[in-house]
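Possible regression after last week's pipeline update?

I re-ran a chain I had predicted before the update to compare outputs. Posting the input and the new output here so someone can diff against the archived version. Not blocking, just want to make sure nothing changed silently.
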Amino acid sequence: MAGEIVMRWKSGFVFALMLGVAAPATAQEPAPKTLDQLAPEIDALFVKYQAEQHIPGMVYGVVKDGKLAYVKGVGVQNIADKRPVTPDSLFRIASMTKAFTALSILKLRDDGKLRLDDLAEQYVPEMKGWTYPTADSPRIRIRDLLQHVGGFVTDDPWGDRQQVLPQDEFTKLIAAGVPFSRVPQSQHEYSNFGYALLGRIVARASGVAYTDYVRQTILTPLGMTSSGFDAPGAPKARYALGYRWEDDKWSAEPEMVDGAFNAMGGLQVSASDYAKWVAFLLSAWPARDDADTGPVKRATVREMAQGLNFVSVTNRIGASGATACKQAAAYGMGWRVAQDCDLGLTMAHGGGYPGYGSHVMLMPDHGVGVFALSNRTYAGPSAPAWDTAVLMEQAGLLPDRAVPVSPSVADMFAAARGAYAAGNLAPLDGKLAMNFLLDRSAENWAAEFARLKTEVGECPAAEPLAPMGAMSTAFRLNCDKGKLDGMLLLAPTTPATLQALRLRVVPAEQP
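New output (post-update):
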């Protein structure tokens, strides 16, 4: 065999598919709380963070079922007039802007304006004269910039202060060349400079300014009418002024105008607007046959979750991080992507900026997102955002989206049950893949059925199937003297055939 296929269920039961250990059906879960019932606990998380981090004002929200299901502002937009923060207060989101830049690049790819494997210098000719660190260094592609593998040095906080750099000065900076931190494509290293280059590529490929392209392609179609890049020009009645905490007091940070590094961190949004973006992204899951009416294709949005293969093992953010199982994390396209044993697929990104801190985390498996925006330098509320997600999971507010049972799986399951009842493989005649009887003889299967029947008897009832996809499922049979857990796996043939069947007796003490 090619090896083990290991799958992890949300219940935490791990089984090796090719070794034949099937997952038990999940136990009955308690009735979930409502989000309103959970709200006081969520509020406590953010209020505590606000106090500990000396944040003048903050707004946070939960997007669920395609809408802003919960939102709350705390504190003030500025300390002079003490105007309270509301869902319509305007905050800069710093590096959370990168997701807009990444999706803009992918949209241009969809429209045939560029390819991800194009060399970046094709669109930024000033890069052509660069000296690479080694003779065998690959030249930087667009996809390398998207996933921070261009070889540039990590440039927080230097990059944040380049927001105001004029475009002509950026051109000179590019033409002067860069000192590489490492060979491109050899390791992930976060780079604001790289995303500023992507902004230049968006402009060259689209023929319009980066800010115009984002507005026309994403912001306006999504109804994000309050969002934009001219932060100092925003309505003062809604403007959350950015502060730093220094020497036990707040002082206002400079209000940075739109400049050449806008693609890495310059966007300003309200919670009401940003929730529309989060809802749009989450709507890309699951894949389906519905009309694709968004400004960018659903399949393209889902592509952003493909982490490059520089995977790290990390702790979950927040209070549960020390005791939760480890995450396998990588950088996708404008998102940090991880698999979490409780939350499933997560896509997250922080934003740190002079005067602002922000965080967003999406759980596409559940159609839920949590975000928070604050007006204190680098005070990104990542911990309360993730703790909110964990609270929701524990409260039963993150139900799994059911994987549909395909006709092929349903048909094969019925035939496999028939084989067990008959005590032989006759009901599976014509349905077996060519490997099946090579791996285990028909006589051995008959003996196995007889052994299992001696232990648990006939199995007249079955619990609902738990498919892992359209070609495999775990199942549980309720038998006269116990239970059987099983798994079946179809082969990639037309018509579908059975390549593997596994059965095991559930221990008496196991639910």
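Follow-up from reviewer: compared with the archived run. Residues 35-52 form the longest helix (18 residues). Marking as no regression found.
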